[in-house]
Amino acid sequence: MTILTVIHIFIVTCTLQGQPVETGLEVLVKSKFEILKGKKVGLITNPTGVNRDLQSCIDLLYNAPGVKLTALYGPEHGVRGDYTAGEIIGSATDPSTGLPVYSLYGNTRKPTKEMLKGIDVLVYDIQDIGSRSYTYISTLGLAMEAAAESNIPFIVLDRPNPLGGFRMEGPLVREGFISFVSQYPIPYVHGMTVGELALYLNGEGLLENGVRCDLKVIKMNGWKRDMSFEDTGLPWVPSSPHIPHAVTACYYPATGITGELYVASIGVGYTLPFQMFATEWYDADSLARNLNSLDLPGVIFRPVHYKPYYSVSQGKMVHGVQIHLTDIRIAPLSLIQFYILQEAWKLWPGKDIFAICEKARLDMFDKVCGTDQVRILFTKTWRVDSIIDMWTGDIPAFRTRAGNYFLY
C-alpha cells in the first residue's frame, strides 16, 4: 500500500466520521434567508445564537439583504448573556445595532402586543440544554403563545440537544406546579430538540387556552439522536454563566434539582458547576466509598474538599464528592443527586436537608420536580427505590406522543 493510498483512506475515513452538523441558522443562511425576505423580523436570542464561525444571528440577520431586523427579545441572562441567574432584566437599546431589546425576564415573561407591534415574523434561535427547568424553553412556549395571539408566524432555528435525542427522565409536571421552571407537562429530561419541542407544545395544544401558532421549524442537517454535542463538530458558547461547556449540560440534571435547596454546594460558585455535591458536615471519603459501592452505571465519585467562592457555603470548607460521568449514555443523570442523598442519610441519619432549608427553597425544589410527591415519597424512606416508579412511570406514554413530532 502506497503512502498516497494511506493518506487517501485517512482523509475519507475522517470525512465520513466528521460530517458536520448544520444548525437551523446555518441552513437559513444557505437559503439566503429566503423565508424572511421582505419581512420585519423580531429575534429571540442570546449569545448561543451563532454559526460555526461564531458569527451572531443578530449580525447575520441585521446585515441580510432584504431582511429588516426590527427588534430583539432576550430570555433569562439577556440577549448578550450579561446577567446572572434569576436577575431581573429591563428593556434597553442594543449598543451594537441600535435596535430595541425587549426583556422576557423582567416585568413580563411573555411578549406583549406592544412589544410585537410592527413585527411580521418572530424568530427563535437559542441553544437549549435538554432539561425542563432551564428557562429558555419556557420563554419559547410563552413567545409562541404571544405570536399566536397576535397572528404572527413563528420560526424556530433548530439546534442539537446536548443530552441526545433518546434520554427521557422524570415525571411530567402535575397540576398546581406549573411555573417558569416547569412551564409545560413534559419530563424533566425531555429528549427533544428545541424545534421538536416547539412542534410538540403546538401540536398537543399545550399553549395557553390551547392556542396554536403558525409554526415553522428550520431543521438541522446531519444531526442524529445518538449524537453527543462533541459529535456535532459545533462550537459551544456558554448557554448561561454556569453552563460554560457542553458537558456541563450533562451534569446540570445530576445536581440541579437538589441544588435548589441551597443547602449543599453543587459546584455553582466554584470552578465545576453542577459537578460537585458537598456540605460542611459530610465526610468526603465515606460518602464517595458508599456511592461507588452502588456500582451505578456510567458514573464514579471522587472525594473532594473545597471552598466555594460564592453561593452556598461561600468561603467555607465543604466536603463531598465530585461526580465523574464516565459514560453519559448509560448514567442515571437526574437520579444521581437522589442516590447521593440516600447514601448521605445512611451516614448521617437525622440530618435532613429538606428540614434545614428555607420554605421558599423547598417550594422551588417542588416546582423544579414538577410535583411535591417526589420529596414526600423520598423522605419517607430516603431510598431511591421509593421514587423510581414516579420518576420513570410517565416516560413510555410521553415517548410515544413525542415521537410524533421527531424531526430526526
* CATH homology group of the largest domain: Uncharacterised protein PF07075, DUF1343
CATH top level label of the largest domain: Alpha Beta
End-to-end Cα distance, whole Å, is: 39 Å
**Structural class of the helix and strand makeup?**
alpha/beta
Beta-strand portion reads 5-15%
Please state the oligomeric state of the protein chains shown. Answer: single chain
Tally of DSSP β-strands:
10
Radius of gyration based on Cα positions: 22 Å
What is the helix/strand order? HHEHEEEEHEHEHHEHEEHHHHHH
Main sheet?
Answer: 7 strands, mixed
Global morphology: globular
How much helix, percentage-wise, in residues?
25-40%
SS summary, helix count: 14
User: What fold name stands as the CATH topology of the largest domain?
Assistant: Rossmann fold
Low-confidence stretches: 4-17
Strand order of the largest sheet: 3-4-2-1-5-6-7
Mean pLDDT across residues: 95
Per CATH, the architecture of the largest domain is: 3-Layer(aba) Sandwich
Number of domains as seen in the coordinates = 2
What does this structure look like?
It is a single chain. This protein is of the alpha/beta class and 408 residues long. It folds into two domains: 22-238, Uncharacterised protein PF07075, DUF1343 (Rossmann fold); 248-371, Aspartate Aminotransferase, domain 1 (Alpha-Beta Complex), CATH 3.90.1150. The chain has 14 helices and ten strands. The protein has helices spanning 3-17, 24-30, 57-62, 136-149, 194-203, 229-232, 248-259, 284-292, 336-347, 353-356, 359-369, 373-381, 385-393, 395-403, and strands at 40-45, 68-74, 92-93, 100-103, 121-125, 154-157, 215-218, 276-279, 299-306, 318-325. Strands 3-4-2-1-5-6-7 form a seven-stranded mixed beta sheet. It has a three-stranded antiparallel beta sheet with strand order 8-10-9, covered by helices on one side. Strand 3 and strand 4 (100-103) form a beta hairpin. It is globular, with a radius of gyration of 22 Å. The two termini are 39 Å apart. Mean pLDDT is 95; it is low at 4-17.
